[in-house]
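Dear support,

Our group has been running a series of protein-ligand predictions, and this particular one with acetyl coenzyme *A is the one our PI (initials K.S.) wants archived with full inputs and outputs. We had some confusion internally about which version of the output was final, so please treat the block below as the authoritative record. The input we submitted was:
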Amino acid sequence: MKFEDFKIMATASSAPDHVVTNDELATMMDTSDEWITQRTGIKRRRIATEETTSSMCTDVATQLTAQSDLTAKDIDLIAVATMSPDYLTPSVSAMVQGNIGADHAIAFDIDAACSGFVYGLHLVKQMLIANQQKNAILIGGETLSKLLDWSDRSTAVLFGDGAGGVLIRNTAVDKGSFISEDLRTLGNLGQYLTAGQTGNPSPFATDQQPFSPFFKMNGRRVYSFAVKNVPESINDALKQANLTADEVDCFVLHQANRRIVERIADELAVSMAKFPINIDEYGNTAAASEPILLDQLVKQKIIKRGDVIALSGFGGGLTVGTMIMKY
Ligand code: ACO
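Confirmed final output from the archive:
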């Protein structure tokens, strides 16, 4: 058995029912719809009430198998990109595997924050090759609301919850679907964006520092990092693919801030018409943002079979990941 290439067979997404508008946040903290809209492009976000990262990811995985000619038993690999798992163990992916009855699948989580989905595409591709396996589910899923300090207006207005994913098939039929990629990690800048800090309450620990699970971000530093590194990463991936930015049909970028997307479009000298946005509806959903947007674009037939798309994510780590593919 030898497979040679990869294809996205199905896309799906899931989000909590509860919608929180900017105006509602303005009743809870010193902020306004005008500030949030102008600085970020966000108008509202979905916030989990009963939903968890694993429940939304399970919904996505169920939709993915239902859309295909496969059953859960045909899935070989399940990977979930998340920075907000239900537990440190079991992994979200193992919970999904159990929930859908994918008895033959191995499962693991990926933590690369907002770059997690593209890092996941890379890893799933390599594992399908190495293991000579055929069918994988990759999901980006987040419940970022549980990592927010709701008294900190500088971060509480930015993030939202949701999940999105793809069913990937390793196939000898479709040639050249996953065309090129560029992954970067700048760990020396990691302290500009932290969340989920864990302390050590053990009686043997000598350094009992206070710790906080909440987001802390130097927004300006992350902004500068993104507008420099994302265009560089996209250009490097395009160069490897022997393509120009003009030849890309659609740029599916991480939805962190409308202004960042506009700056990246400007740097690449490509019309904003090729940079769809849904941050107004979802806020920043980290690893879930690109697969949720991808699913919307596929369902709206804005992305069609044969289109060249550039997926690019950036964020905590700090990390960047770009993948050029033929849909
Ligand atoms: N409402 C009203 N005022 C606010 C708010 C708010 N929600 N938040 C901050 N302000 C105030 C600040 O206190 C400051 O006031 P001051 O001038 O009196 O001190 C003023 O607004 C400007 O604050 P800045 O932080 O300088 O605002 P900036 O224009 O940089 O926008 C933002 C902030 C939106 C966070 C921007 O820096 C940004 O988008 N950065 C990138 C974030 C990002 O991309 N993260 C992605 C990774 S996320 C991940 O990996 C999980």
